[in-house]
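note to self: dont lose this again. the chain is below, predicted strucutre after it. 299 aa total, dont forget to put it in the shared folder this time
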Amino acid sequence: MKADRKYFVALAACVLSFGIMSCTEKVEVTDRGVMNFSAQIGETATKVTETSWDGDETVALKAEYGESDVEVKAYMVVNAEGDMTVAEGTEPFQWYGNEFALKAWYPYSVDGRIVLTDQSDADKFFGCDLIYCSVNVVQKDVTLHFQHKMCRVKCYIQYYEGYTKEQAAQAKITFLGYGTVTYQDGEIVTEGEPNHEISSFTKAAEQNQDWFCAEAMMVPCEMWDKPMVKVEIGGDSYVYTPTQDGDNGRNTGVLTAGSRQEYFFNVNKGNYSLTVITDGINEWIPDDNSAVVPDPVQE
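---
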């Protein structure tokens, strides 16, 4: 009887031990392993389109497990839906069941230096769309929700009295701002002064083919009393310099992160007026406050 009881206790201990081991193995299988990432892009304040990926972008992911335990890895966005895979030759992040902080930003470069002066086509233009995400990771599958860090500026030549449609179509629109930044951890660090010419992405306006426009991604900052937009048409040059005199708190010289600001030029051979739409507010800047600089003035 004693021997039978010893055998039963030993058998029960064995079964219990096997059960514990099985549960432990089950936790490892379901909770640990290679992490899966996907990325979504949030809209700017007034942006309703072009919030998807091309499918060939390189994104930086930075895991912060503690003050001194940090890893940065390059991941590739593989399709418009934002599915991601680790860059070739890089070990993917692993999930071990411990919560950690994750930062992500695009575009990714080894030294973090981004040149903004050439935005002359769609690829170069969207390549300057600096975006950022920060999240606490609590599971193996993570969706990253990126937000825009730049100000998307569009300039229209809306009316062009004294010029032909062909001259308007060939007009050159140049933005002036910071030409180079360092971009790491989602922080923009500027270089120099905001006086660099930015070649813009120019196209016929979608709504009306008689309008012509250009766009650029610009660093958020204040541009008071600084040349910001130059329009060259038919041999004449017009420079818009926002001033606080007469601005009445409209902040027309403030480039705001994550927004789209639009400038509508109404050119009349030798002078112009300007309408500004910023953060959804339509503001009219009259002739005497618009800092018109025609060069040369032709009668």
